[in-house]
Amino acid sequence: MTQILALAAFLLILVHDLFGGALLAGSPRGAWVVAATLAPLALLAAAVHAVSIHTARRLDRGAPFRAANTAEGALGAARLVGGACYAGGVLILGWPDVVRGAMGNTILLDELVIAAPFLAFLVVGWVSIWGVDRRLREATMLKHLDDGAEPVPPLGAAAFVLMSTRHHLLLVLVPVAMVMAWTELVDRGLGAIGSRLERGGGLPAWLGSMESASAAAALAQLAGIAAIVVLSPLLLRRLWSTSPLAGPLRDTLVGMARRYGVRLGRPLVWRTHGLMVNGAILGAFWPARYLLLTDALLEHLSAEQIEAVAAHEIGHARLRHLLWLGAAVIATLQAVGVGAHWLGVRGDEASAAAGATLVLSLAAAAGVFTCVSRVFEWQADAFAVRHLSLTLPAPLPGRAPAMTEHAATIMTAALRNVAEWNGVPVGRPSWRHGSIALRQQKLWKLVGVPVDELPIDRRVRRIKGATAVALAAGVGAMFLLPL
User: What is the rounded distance in angstroms from the CA atom of residue 82 to the CA atom of residue 435?
Assistant: First the structure.
């Protein structure tokens, strides 16, 4: 959720600029806008901090681990409410206008200053929750000591906040900042060409006309954005502190990716000071697409469990979940936009109706993103169990391949260990993935099911089909509806 909110902070600035200012005429200016934008964030941050301190004291008095859900829930709710308050400041009160009036419209710098209060609010949330996280990790450390495992001491507050910022915010901030800087630079260049024409100057011979210049600018923007999307993982892998994985495990993972037709760069060890047990695929396209496994995951999970986690991540890439997730969100935005257009609401006008349409679009897109993301996560879990079922001890002769209990045991154990080593109760709900307990239940229900007849695969096919139809209908409506 943090990454989505950080992205939304910049998208709201673009929407504000599209509308040409605040949505409501006569909105306050100056100090009133500053107070109305910043004060709610400060109050929410103080409330979260108070809840976190109270929760930490309850844990000190022997409260069960689930008591931590209070602080986590308060943090999540505060971030959603804070995002709504920030959106009101940007779109209704005109917070960007106040900032730019004070510092000018410098490429990228003004957008960073506009988004800074909300980004700082997200970071302060990690400062508040650190005490709860530390107590959970200390309790986990004691449990692992009893089990004979080597414990990993929790990070201090500064290191915890820095790691959270690097691993959550920078994933969004780096490519978004690069895209915004590039598009603004191209727009400034096109504007300079237009100003030159107004002064009676001529265009370079290779441009020919202003129409050609506009087309060239559009192509330059698209090419630059594509290059940033493809190449930003090269920078992120440095910011996240990674190193190449070596040894027999590397060969196993490379062979698995080749088996499923997924082209990856070299597998990487994701160094997190032993405090994060996780795996991920960074990047959407080869050669700047990497499989990352954290140092703690490699240390604390068995070889079969590591293979299961890697298969889960490779399943996301093989099934093109990222592409279809984006398509589902776009289709949702299209549907709301087409409906609003039929009702006579113009998206490029500054009006209350246009603002309501924007809020509805974002809410609908967030809902679809959540639902589809969870289904895709369950399918990636099933993909991992299918892989293990087909590669571990073969089924009995004469029987069709089916999801085995042994494979389900490995994957559910991997999910449990990931949760425990991260200090996360298995029953805690997750916005994007659902709870670990729910994911484990769904895997157990697959035992004995033929590998080519999984219900989750049929469900995903329906989602992809509906998304494709909705996208096609939305594109058709764009041509049919009057402007």
Answer: 24
Spatial neighbors of 422 by CB under 8 A, at least 6 apart, are 276, 277, 278
Q: What pLDDT digit, counting tens, does each position of 396-450 carry?
A: 555 558 899 999 999 999 999 888 877 777 877 777 788 899 999 999 999 989 9
Say how far apart CA 119 and CA 352 lie, in whole Å. 27
For 60, half-sphere exposure in the C-beta direction (CA atoms, 13 angstrom radius) is 9
Closest by alpha carbon to 406, among 313, 315, 294, 302? 302
Nearest to 75 by CA among 47, 113, 37, 42: 47
**In this structure, how many other beta carbons lie within 10 angstroms of the beta carbon of residue 234?**
14
CB atoms < 10 A from the CB of 214, how many? 14
Please report where in the chains the tokens 């804070």 appear, as a residue. Answer: 82
**What's this model's pTM, rounded to 2 decimal places?**
0.78
Structure tokens at 56: 């930490």
Using an 8 Å Cβ cutoff, are 446 and 420 in contact?
Answer: no
Strand order in the sheet with 290-294: 242-244, 268-270, 290-294, 279-282
